[in-house]
Amino acid sequence: MFSDSEIAKAAEVQVYKGVYYDLQSRPIEGGLLDPRMGPPNKSGKCATCDGSFGDCPGHYGYLPLVLPVYNVGYLSTILDILKCICKSCSRILLDDKLAKDYLKKMRAPKTEPLKKAEIMKSVVKKCTAMAGGKAVKCSRCGYLNGTVKKAPKMIGVFHDRSKVNDNSLEELKSAISHTKESKSSINTSSVLNPVKVLSLFKRMTDVDCELLYLSDRPEKFIITNIAVPPTAIRPSVPVDGSQSNENDITERLKRIIQANSSLRQQLVDSNAAFHCLNGWDLLQVDVAQYINSDVRGVPTEMQPARPLSGFLQRLKGKQGRFRGNLSGKRVEFTGRTVISPDPNLKITEVAIPIHMARILSYPERVSSHNIEKLRQCVRNGPSKYPGAVKVRYPDGSARLLIGDYRKRLADELKFGCIVDRHLEDGDIVLFNRQPSLHRMSIMCHRARIMPWRTLRFNESVCNPYNADFDGDEMNMHVPQTEEARTEALMLMGVQNNLCTPKNGEVLVASTQDFLTSSFLITRRDTFYDRATFSLICSYMGDAMDLIDLPTPTLLKPVELWTGKQLFNVLLRPHASVRVYLNLTVKERNYSRKIAKRIGDKEIEVETMCPNDGFVYIRNSELICGQLGKATLGNGNKDGLYSILLRDYNAHAAATCMNRLAKMSARWIGNHGFSIGIDDVQPGKRLNDAKGVTLSGNYKKCDEQIQMFNEGKLQLKPGCDAAQTLEANITEVLNKIRDETGKVCMRELHWRNSPLIMSQCGSKGSAINISQMIACVGQQSVGGRRAPNGFIDRSLPHFHRGSKTPAAKGFVANSFYSGLTATEFFFHTMGGREGLVDTAVKTAETGYMSRRLIKALEDLSIHYDNTCRNASGCIVQFIYGDDGMDPASMEGKSGFPLNFDRLLMKVKATCPPVDQKYLPADAIPQMLEEQVVKHDPDGVCSEAFKKSLKGFLEGQKNELKRVMQLVSNSAQKSEILEDVSHKICGITDRQLEVFIRICIGRYRSKVIEAGTAIGAIGAQSIGEPGTQMTLKTFHFAGVASMRVPRIKEIINAAKKISTPIITAELEFDSNVNVARMVKGRIEKTVLGQVAKSIKIVMTSRLASVVISLDMERILDAQLHIDANVVKESILLTPKLKLKEQHVKVLDVKKLEVVPPADRSRIHFELHSLKNLLPLVVVKGIKTVERVVIAEKKKDNKSLNKEAKKLYQLFVEGMGLQTVMGVEGIDGRKTMSNHVMEMLQILGIEAARSCIINEIAATMASHGMSIDIRHMMLLGDVMTFRGEVLGITRFGIQKMDKSILMLASFEKTGDHLFNASVNGRDDKIEGVTECIIMGIPMQLGTGILKVMQR
Amino acid sequence: MSNLILFEDIFVVDKLDPDGKKFDKVTRIEARSQNCDMFMHLDVNTEIYPMHVGDKFTMALAHTLNLDGTPDTGYFNPGRKSLADKYEYVMHGKLYKISDDSSGKGLKAEIYVSYGGLLMLLRGEASHVSHFELDQRLFLLIRKL
Q: Which stretches are annotated as coiled coil (chain B) (predicted)?
């Protein structure tokens, strides 16, 4: 902050004229564009430093104000200070001892800025509390201070002394009693004008300033001199000769000069009272708007028609300096155009149009290897591809290659020159599609220069970009140095980003047509003769690869190869390719038939699946199964590409993808695949089946409706009759669509294109097919059936109150048969909801992602395995509790390895030739030995070792079981033993290899130090948010939410829309006990348990008599009697009844005598009669309802224990009281409300609540996210000891730097506060480093070279 | 010659497509052997080699088609005399799984062979299948009787 004298000293010129140019359009001296503040345009020169427009940095001017005004940015600080100091002697209002205490705290070296701000707030609070709405006497001068407030509707401060009881008021009154004004009340509150405040501030002691956390003198908060910024930052643009367009700031300054001079005039002219000066207020407003143009408190008549932006407007917002220019910058060497697919490109390539390649360039240094190439480039020049734009010489000079001297330059080209040549094949480019939701949205490809005008890439890479070819455009950037290129290739290369760190699934995988053709090729009845087979083989490698033709499957009567053998060639074209792939996948059309049972275990048909839905690849040979999305597509951890990636490397997976893309694109081009009207024509059988399903289910609905009308409907837990009916009907109707879908899948011919696509997973599902062919199904609006737009009916085509399927939006027709008018209307209702939802959702989730990123961006892994933020605070001691990288997790639910698959691979690749099989009991012993051998320094976590042990134990038991069978049958045991070993034995060599691979892999999966795990986590949680469709969906009557729920958790909202307490019962096997406990929790009002509530009037007294329905109470086991009711009546504050008014007559009767006089007793009685039934006699008030639910059983107990276990779902708040209810196991009872968990169970409980709730919400939408990301989020929200939401308030408290906060939200507030408090910024966080343009302390920047 | 053939028996087709017809050209046959009481599921290309319920055929499994017993080279040379001459339908494939079936008493074994995606399941007494190895290349030879 500058004081007025400092401003004057720094300035070159005093600005006092509100004018720009003279008639010759030269800037006027002393005007706003004075040439001493820098050249006004390109032609001018600076009058101070004689620099040109480009060189002169600009110089300040100053503008002295006649009277001081407040700086709006500091108005709240000024207010706080005024609250704390005596308005007479400028000392702090606290007494000496208290002040000393606070000072001590403030000066303690360990006090963080956040804490200091808190102390300051408490000082302010203390001072205002001392005033207590009245007066406070200054302990030093004895002046009575009133309360200080911000003046309404103006920029100023009020000092309200109306409640000050000194005798000055009386004195005053008596003094003016003889005048006319005495009758009117005297306004004792006065506006504290800036002059007064300035003098107060000037007298403040430095110690008091320190106490108020002011790093500088407070008089600087008041403006007396305005620094006029140099013209460089407020350029003046001349428009057609004489006119010029001035910057907003210049115009603001002009207004200030005008206001200033008119104020000066007023001062000279009138000797009016000081504060009556109208001009002063005007000046204040103008100066305020100069700083912040949408400042509050500007009188409406002073607001200009066109808002001119102030300084604050330049900084804040998305387009502002912070977010628009400092955090993100415009760049050169970029391109953007429409994208299109090209399966002939490799997945790592991108085709760049020649037009683009001629404009984009890369500076290549001339060396002996490339001199001839570069000479040719230079000769070709900028317009002929492959050419060059520019040559730079080692001495720093450069020549553009336009002109005839190109040839000479080419000949003179020397080593060490740099040629800016056109882009060529193999150059490294970054490729990006907005919205960039995760790091795979910008990846590094290699360029392929191609004709035509689109950017092209392999369809397999659509997934990470979320791109399609319906007109999408994408951006491209060319890194300009070798360092940038290598870093881009290593970190952002497509090959190194095949799988997502969200959960370790592959993202780059075959899609759409590739899946369809693979599915068709691998059908069990595709056979090819020698010519065709060889042709297709040559498709996959452009006939350039060496290929071993396999032995035909059918040798006789004709030589035929199957389609599956094509895949053998694809996976391992030649014997020298050492890729031995082993995997099993269950495809979508796997039948899940049970083949046999062993003991109580059911063995599925697996490979013998009649639909050929079980994919088994053994040593790169496709044994069985029709390949579809599960094997080749994305989103599966056991798919072909993920296994290639894990067992071999990214290159193996990439080449396989390339081969498949080429083969299938060419194959399907020859085979043909299209869809026509006959594909969606239902056959007769299908129509009949649909008719039967429809009429059957309609009948069921009618029955339900009839039962409802007769009142016989069996109620569902927690629902009333109407809700139950809705739930039942919805269930029936939803079933129709599923059933018709199944019928379609069964009845359609296998050549039906939609059927093929849905089966292989390339596009569409059974529901889509069913909608086209059979029945569109129920339309829902807001998760319900179509609402009533008219009185008691959805449309006037139906009867009032009609609840039939057709009247509530059931569409029985298919898209083929055509919709009726009403059906069409309902369909549009559903469609509109979807559209509105997507539009709203994008903005909402985008903001959520931004907040998440801002909160987590600086978290990274350090070399001690801790996860810390930029300032070094530990957030997690070991990342994710085990320090593993979520991107390389192979097993289910984030487990590092999939043992079953690995053992299968080891057994297949390591054949038991000449090896001895281990006896069952030797397995655990060998494990111990091997673990010690391969993991001597104990990198593997105990949990991992334990699971490995558990897995081998299972293998041991299996072997034992088979050996048992051998010993049972009494014949030729040696042969049998041999066979049984072949069945499930394991050799010592195999076991050793297995354990070595397990441990070796585990160690390679440990997360690397420097990983920006915070940003990854934020993206992993933010990105799926955008995919969540439809806000609500109803699940068995209980509404569960999607995006809004995640928002609630992340915001740490105090009030959530669906608080649910999951309560465990002490005796969970008995329904009756559950009902009893439910009764205790659920609130029971008097009206429910009273037989009657009557007004009794006798001659002596009038009262309300309540008689209880004891039968009912006993039935529900509620333990209520008259005494309990009396208690609860007395506890209800609304009734205002006292002990003596309620009389217990007997166990089930009581009498209430209202305390009123005779005249109003009648009204009192009636109001009591109305209020009493609502008195809560039992249960928890905050609870809405309680639902008894059956517990989900785990698979283990499925067979034997058929006993049902129950738990309670309590809707509402009040965890503590629920835990205390008799019959509830308080130790296992939890709420989904984070803040309540924090209050009652503490911070660790809140953390696990956050983690569990996010996981549950994501899982309910079928999205798997690695638990480690959610753990990190939970830890960030709780590591300060309180739950901090990911909102502007929470992030502020997370120990972040000012620049980061300023670039997030509330830019101005943070900057002004920082200047008041004298904050410094160490520039260690991500945002700060980006703003400053220096490498940040994470990722590759975590290391520095030590200089000796 | 007997050492060429790992297994040979006469089977009778019991059923075609036990789980319903799924494919046009390929039929899964369920057959039972007469001598060893073996049970078999086999996918056969019925477009070029039709089969019907009640058909009686002899089925053999061999390492190689070379009559001298030299191992299979992987190349097919039609001119030479081979084991295939005596049979009408010959497939080549790989044994990929041996498992047990303990539904009954004693140890029953199952061997699974894939002929380029056409599968075979052979179930019977363990002693009959003891000389099969995992990952063994096998030729299936069929002749109708």
A: none
**C-alpha to C-alpha distance for A180 and A199, rounded to whole angstroms:** 34
740-799 in A: which are within 8 Å (CB) of B?
750
Which residue, among A505, A466, A440, has the nearest Cα to A636 in the 3D structure?
Answer: A505
**CATH topology classification for A329-494:** Barwin-like endoglucanases (2.40.40)
Q: Average pLDDT for residues A547-551, to the nearest whole number?
A: 87
Q: Residue A466 and residue A462: Cα distance in Å, rounded? A: 6
Q: Which residues, numbered 30 to 49 in chain B, qualify as contacts with chain A under a Cβ-Cβ cut-off of 8 Å?
A: 41, 43, 45, 47-49
Which run of H or of E encompasses A445?
strand A442-450
Cis peptide before A557 (omega within 30 of 0): yes
* CATH architecture observed for domain B5-94+138-144: Beta Barrel (2.40)
Q: Residue A323 has what DSSP assignment? A: I
Q: Which two tokens stand for residue A567?
A: 């895949």
| Distance in angstroms (rounded) separating the CA atoms of residues A431 and A307 | 40
Residue position matching structure tokens 């060189």: A55
Per-residue pLDDT band at A1067 (split at 50, 70, 90): confident
Q: Which CATH number fits domain A512-668: 1.10.274.100, 3.30.160.270, 3.30.200.20, 3.40.50.720?
A: 1.10.274.100
First to last CA, chain B: 20
Set of chain A residues whose Cβ sits within 8 Å of the Cβ of B89? 554, 556-557
Token pair, residue A164, equals 């000050």
More confident residue, A1205 or A351: A351
- Stretch(es) of chain A classified as CATH 2.40.40.20: 329-494
* B143 close to A (CB below 8 A): no
B107–A607 CB contact, under 8 Å: no
Q: For residue B114, give the nearest of A550, A624, A984 by CB distance.
A: A624
* Partner residues linked to B32 by β-bridges: B12, B39
Q: How far apart are CA A48 and CA A58, in angstroms?
A: 9
| 937-966 of A, contacting B, C-beta below 8 A | 962, 965-966
Inter-residue long-range contacts of A216-220, CB under 8 Å, 24+ positions, other chains counted: A216/A1, A216/A1315, A216/A1316, A216/A1318, A217/A3, A218/A78, A218/A81, A219/A3, A220/A1, A220/A2, A220/A3
- pLDDT tens digits for A172-211? 667 666 665 544 555 556 778 888 888 888 888 888 888 8
Residues contacting residue A937 through CB under 8 Å, at least 6 positions apart: none
What are A726-765's pLDDT values in tens digits?
A: 888 888 888 888 888 888 888 888 888 999 998 888 888 8
Residues of B in contact with A971 (CB under 8 A): 127
Spatial contact of A453 and A337, defined as CB atoms under 8 Å apart: yes
CB-based contact (8 Å) between A968 and chain B? yes
3-state secondary structure of A1006: strand
Q: How far is the C-alpha of A1218 from the C-alpha of A1201, rounded, in Å? A: 29
Whether residues A556 and B90 touch (CB distance < 8 A) is answered with yes
Give me the amino acid identity at B91: M
Mean pLDDT of all residues in chain A? 85
A871 has a pLDDT exceeding 80: yes
Containing A1190, the helix (H) or strand (E) segment is: strand A1183-1190
Contact A507, A498 (CB under 8 A): yes
- What span, in angstroms and rounded, lies between the C-alpha atoms of A908 and B133? 12
